[in-house]
Amino acid sequence: KTGYASSKWISFDKPQTENGNNNENSSGNTNISLGSIRTTGPEKNNIHYYSDDNIFYKVKLSPPFTNSSGKPIVGNCTWYAYGRIWEMTGRIPYDAGFTGNGYEWWNANIRSG
């Protein structure tokens, strides 16, 4: 069924570490709680969006970079979505296959399980 994702496959619970810390990949500076709606843009020191671990930031498809005509890049939808997935799940989505264009993510999600 397209357009449906069962809670059996997707969990928004952050993984627990051995010491009980469930926020090991967090920058520690975000006020976004699990599953809450983000009403502001991410801060420039938020590693989910502004670090080389976000592959779209790494290749300069995000703020604060400029495009070929010198205009500031406001943000790429895949840059934001990649960061938001990481922010909400506590896991960098390396293995999910979310690397290309957004329209490719549905099939990547199916392939990754």
TrEMBL record:
Residues 17-31 have a biased composition (Low complexity). InterPro entries: Papain-like_cys_pep_sf (IPR038765). Residues 1-39 are annotated as: Disordered. Coiled coil: none annotated. This is Bacterial SH3 protein. It comes from human gut metagenome.
